[in-house]
Automatic annotation (TrEMBL):
It catalyses: 3-phosphoshikimate + phosphoenolpyruvate = 5-O-(1-carboxyvinyl)-3-phosphoshikimate + phosphate. One of its GO terms (molecular function) is 3-phosphoshikimate 1-carboxyvinyltransferase activity. Pathway: Metabolic intermediate biosynthesis; chorismate biosynthesis; chorismate from D-erythrose 4-phosphate and phosphoenolpyruvate: step 6/7. It comes from the Bacteria. Belongs to the EPSP synthase family. It comes from Aequorivita viscosa. Residues 63-399 form the Enolpyruvate transferase domain. It is an enzyme of class 2 (transferase). This is 3-phosphoshikimate 1-carboxyvinyltransferase.
Length: 413
């Protein structure tokens, strides 16, 4: 499917109902698999969450997570600790290029039985579930926080709980804090202090209903739209000022780009509007804690003619695609001058956008959604537009509500 985008007729204020956070939903599903009396409301409708739900129904056989990296990591840990499970865990060709050795080593050190079926350190995996008796494990913390969250989420089902020592600089720390908060919310004793995460074992919990907050990562594309507009106003539901999600940093990041966020406590919505049109010549951000915002911020800055330097992006090379390289290629098509290294991207100030460019998505949902707001500045096309279903199936429909002209065309395989 191809998306053809351009400027349309803009309403005074559009209201967008963004679905539940994929990050919260996936963590809660692993916890619900252990404690059936957890009720989850506003669950994410993303492909990743659907894949995880289906995977959790399997005890013996093959589970294919396709492109879902979170599902791969969380299910690796879950099945390793589930007695009697015998699973082949696999994914797409790209998933089989994404490293998982740090997590597998940690689990095997705890007594798990996980084998590589093809390449050492990468899926597919053969997992035989066992009772993991050991309590202590050390994990490299500067590669992916999902390895750590995967271990944290299975800690309540381990007979002796779990103590995780984090080695190196911890990246994406808000996601670890999110996992910790959800564990505490259901009644698990857990703490994170001096690079050590300690979580107690738990047999049962009181019945609890948890409402998943809407996805701040998905909200980023509407922040970008407002930033790139003259006077666009958008209301997003349902968001909290004291969010568990690290990407809630959007409100402060985009304030620098002229977007005002008003938190409406009466209905848990946020109202976005363009207020400050005196923008800086350049923007420098360390996104170690919020790497999923990098693509959106980079495209916004380019569209506004602002130079930017984004650092702390070492995880982007092992995502759905090598996101730094993909950004460089696609922004260069549009006329940008871009420099990347292993953990950063720098974009020179530019006032010219090449029109009618075709953006490739590289099987990466965030590439499609991050570039879409540029339709406010220049007509463009986005190939493989259906990839947004990975995290935000209704994205193109919601984009139209803001006034963007969006025509979706089926393409032949």
């Amino acid at each position: 499917m191809k998306a053809i985008l351009g400027r349309g007729k803009f309403p005074k204020n559009s209201i967008i109902n963004i679905g539940g956070s994929k990050s919260e939903s996936n963590r809660l599903l692993i916890l619900k698999a252990q404690f059936q009396n957890i009720t989850i409301k506003n669950l994410s409708e993303s492909d990743d969450t659907n894949v995880l739900q289906q995977g959790l129904k399997t005890v013996n056989g093959t589970v294919n997570v396709h492109h879902a990296g979170t599902a791969m990591r969380f299910l690796t840990a879950y099945f390793a600790a589930k007695e009697g499970a015998e699973i082949i865990l696999t994914g797409s060709s790209r998933m089989q290029e994404r490293p998982i050795g740090v997590l597998v080593d940690a689990l095997n050190n705890l007594g798990a039985d996980i084998q590589y079926l093809q390449n050492e350190g990468y899926p597919p995996l053969k997992i035989k579930g066992k009772k993991l008796q050991k309590r202590n494990v050390a994990v490299q913390a500067d590669i992916s926080s999902q390895y750590i969250s995967a271990l944290m989420l299975i800690a309540p089902m381990l007979p002796n709980g779990l103590e995780i020592t984090l080695k190196g600089k911890t990246i994406s720390k808000p996601y670890i804090e999110m996992t910790l908060s959800l564990l505490k919310q259901i009644g698990v004793q857990a703490n994170f202090h001096n690079n050590i995460v300690s979580i107690s074992s738990l047999d049962k919990i009181e019945a609890i209903e948890i409402i998943v907050e809407s996805d701040w990562s998905a909200a980023s594309y509407f922040y970008s739209l407002v930033a790139l507009s003259e006077d666009l106003e958008i209301t997003l539901t349902s968001f909290s000022e004291d969010s568990l999600q690290g990407d809630a940093a959007l409100s402060s990041i985009y304030k620098k780009l002229g977007v005002q966020t008003v938190f409406n406590t009466f209905d848990n919505s946020i109202s976005l509007s363009k207020k400050n049109k005196q923008l800086p010549d350049s923007l420098k951000l360390n996104l170690t804690n919020t790497p999923d915002l990098a693509q959106t911020v980079a495209v916004t800055c380019f569209g506004l003619g602002i130079a930017c330097e984004l650092t702390g992006l070492q995880t982007l090379k092992i995502k759905e695609t090598d996101r730094l390289s993909a950004l460089q290629i696609e922004l260069t098509k549009l006329g940008a001058v871009v420099h990347i290294d292993c953990a950063s991207i720098r974009i020179r100030k530019s006032t010219q956008l090449v029109p009618n460019v075709i953006i490739e998505t590289y099987q990466d949902h965030r590439m499609a959604m991050a570039f879409a707001p540029l339709a406010l500045k220049t007509p463009l096309r986005i190939n493989n537009a259906g990839v947004v279903s990975k995290s935000y199936p209704n994205f193109w429909k919601d984009l139209k509500k803001t006034g963007i002209s969006c025509e979706l065309l089926k393409t032949t395989p």
